Amino acid sequence: GALVYQYPRRTICKSGTSMRMECQAVGFQATSVAWYRQSPQKTFELIALSTVNSAIKYEQNFTQEKFPISHPNLSFSSMTVLNAYLEDRGLYLCGARDWSSYEQYFGPGTRLTVL
Amino acid sequence: QQKVQQSPESLTVSEGAMASLNCTFSDGTSNNFRWYRQHSAKGLEVLVSIFSDGEKEEGRFTAHLNRANLHVSLHIREPQPSDSAVYLCAVSMRSGGSNAKLTFGKGTKLSVKS
Questions:
Q1: pLDDT digit string, tens, across residues A42-92
Q2: Helices H / strands E in chain A, number of each
Q3: Chain A contacts of B46, Cβ < 8 Å?
Q4: Across B15-44, average pLDDT
Q5: What is the dihedral sign for C-alpha B30, B33, B38, B42?
Q6: Is the CB of residue B39 less than 8 Å away from at least one CB of chain A?
Q7: B-chain residues within 8 Å CB-CB of A44?
């Protein structure tokens, strides 16, 4: 079956430091990976959409300078939160889209706490 | 820009009674609609995906889509206390790389009382 793993599941970092999170698609080839953030009391916002062999497209209010993403192949993506501050806390979800079925599968998320 | 709105914000039903959740969207060209469930700010569990007008049933969960009215609903038959969660509506286009973007509603918090 198609599964998406995210690592780490939970992380705590000090204000001003950076942390990297990973997303692994298993059982299918992910032609695109979308990173979402759910801030406290809010719904999921799209950060960026990464399609292999295409430029990564960031949504308004999110930048490559703040959230650099690497998507080197059809099964792996990583995103770093640089200089994390309180407003960056939340649940970060990775959604990987299967190239053959267009189904999007989500990982369990990485919960970021900023102290 | 796509706008997705859900109602009600919260809903309490008794165990066994039908629960009905609503979702409206603004982009009439959308053709990919999903209902997700989120327990206690954890990851997302997909419940039903629907791509054409009409109904789609997955176990106790039935989605009803009316694209002309920009409306998609979710009905939960015989809800149980374990169904208590936040239910999220997500809308996108089905095909195309750049159209993998899902726009989420803010969710309906469902409480099922025994």
A1: 889 999 999 877 889 999 989 999 999 998 888 999 999 999 999 999 999
A2: 0, 11
A3: 106
A4: 90
A5: negative
A6: no
A7: 88, 102, 104
